[in-house]
Amino acid sequence: MSAMSSQLSQQLPNRFSPNYSYVFNFEQKFDYTMSQKWMFDKWHTAFYWVAIYMVLVFGGQSLMTTRDAYKLRKTLALWNVLLALFSIFGTFRTLPELVHVLKEFGFRHSVCSPSYVEQVKVSGYWTWLFALSKVPELGPYSSLIQSNH
Q: What is the mean pLDDT of residues 112-120?
């Protein structure tokens, strides 16, 4: 965190967050330092996930060349609906802060300051979940790619 944003957060700690009408218990319990430590400790596992993904994509493609495509339209539609609901809910939880920060501090602060994680548990929690959601999102789409080719 830069000295400017650190100084700013010390001067105006209550101004970083909009007045949420309701904060869920799981959002209130979010500890960004613990999640940040977990991410730093586990960064290397991304290479394992990429390797597994590559094996599934290319192995699945090789395995499916002589077989009929699976009928997964309903399953993939359900998956997409669940992802859309997750994204919509996450947007509703983070958008108020984005609008608030843009209005109070401007575009530069909205991009360059980590106040959304350090000061506001609601958007910190949903941002962390969004980052984690990228891993399971890869799965169904690799099978969809294979069935279309």
A: 76
